[in-house]
């Protein structure tokens, strides 16, 4: 029952963000299970959107849909953001734990699910002239979630609006650094594996 209540609480959070995020952290109205449910629903939403959006508005080839890439495209930015935000706010006297950040961010993404799921069948019954409505609601979902992420960070860490924006910018920079370091490590590992394999082949051929 608590799980269902924590899911339903998302509707309160998106319409009453400051009180909602406060209750998520201090009143324990949210849960990690609900947060991961929203992540799974967001992944499903984006897979369905790529596959079934009306051909007029779908820039992707449904035949080339890669489910693994779609999953990574949701999970990677999410965990990069939560990790970078936790690292930055820990250094800047933030009061939120990593768990608090994960829950607040997941709940903040709820408008992407709430709006984009109905947009999929809607995109199949409208024409190009009515496409302005489609793009308007898609933009609203992204802006709404973006504003909720900032509100969630502000309440979770007990920051002012200015400090929230500043730490969010630093978090985005941190995400970029994490991607750069990850690619660098991956490249070095590739070179090491290639080097070891080359030595192995040389030894085998000489024996």
Characterise the protein shown here.
The protein has about 210 residues and is an all-alpha fold. The chain has one domain. The protein is built from 8 helices and no strands. Helix 3 packs across helix 4 and helix 6 (about 110-125) runs antiparallel to helix 7 (about 130-155). The mean pLDDT is about 90.
Largest sheet: none
Give the mean pLDDT.
91
The assembly state of the depicted protein chains is: single chain
Kindly state the number of beta strands. 0
Integer count of domains: 1
Low-pLDDT ranges: none
Q: Please report the number of helical segments.
A: 8
Taking the alpha carbons of the first and last residues, their distance comes to 68 Å
Give the H and E element order: HHHHHHHH
Give the radius of gyration: 21 Å
Short synopsis of the structure:
This protein is mostly helical and 207 residues long. Helices cover 81% and strands 0% of the residues. It has 8 helices and no strands.
Write the layout of secondary structure elements.
Elements: H1 2-15, H2 17-26, H3 32-52, H4 67-91, H5 98-108, H6 110-123, H7 131-157, H8 161-206
Index terms:
207 residues
